[in-house]
Design goal:
Layout lengths: L2 E5 L5 E6 H6 L4 E9 L5 E6 L10 E2 L2 E4 L6 H13 L7 E12 L2 E13 L11 E7 L1 H6 L6 H14 L2
Parallel strand pairs: 3-8
Antiparallel strand pairs: 1-2, 3-6, 4-5, 4-9, 7-8
């Protein structure tokens, strides 16, 4: 059973709930978002498996996931990179937090995201339960195919673009 901090509008912890309840009741929580870039600036895009509880089968422009109870954003980001893609020991650049809220396929989401990026071009070990395949895409390709992407990852990309340009 996975426990998750429930947070308020200011990202302060107000309780704890099981992950399944967080999803079912659309409770506000935290998640890490990591853009993995190659030297040419392409983004490593994941296709989510059909078993995912949020946006199954869709493309995701970020590695990452739900931050567990008591976990801090950067360690969560590092854990998710290692679990999903087998990426370890890379420098992460932080771009702060952002808030995403909306609905996708009848399921709501309300999440405070910790936003990071890293550069990586080595071997990958995909987590079979979460990632069915990966692609390197330019920001232009992602924009053209936006309807295929999770809405929170598109918000993460636009936030990253705005913040890295100062």
């Amino acid at each position: 059973m996975e426990w998750v901090d429930v947070v308020d509008e200011q990202d302060s912890v107000i309780g704890v709930a099981e992950r399944a309840r967080v999803r079912r009741e659309n409770l506000r929580h935290r998640a890490s978002y990591i853009l993995v870039l190659d030297e040419a600036g392409h983004v490593l895009v994941q296709r989510r498996t059909l078993g995912k509880d949020f946006c199954p089968g869709m493309l995701d422009a970020c590695a990452g996931g739900v931050v567990t109870q008591g976990e801090v954003m950067e360690p969560s980001a590092r854990r998710e990179l290692a679990e999903e893609l087998g990426i370890r020991d890379v420098p992460l650049q932080s771009f702060g937090t952002f808030y995403a809220e909306g609905e996708m396929d009848g399921k709501g989401y309300r999440v405070w995201g910790g936003l990071f990026s890293c550069h990586y071009q080595g071997p990958l070990q995909l987590q079979a339960e979460e990632v069915s395949e990966v692609y390197w895409m330019s920001l232009a390709e992602i924009a053209v195919r936006a309807a295929e992407f999770t809405p929170d990852s598109l918000l993460a990309i636009s936030t990253w673009q705005a913040r890295r340009q100062g």
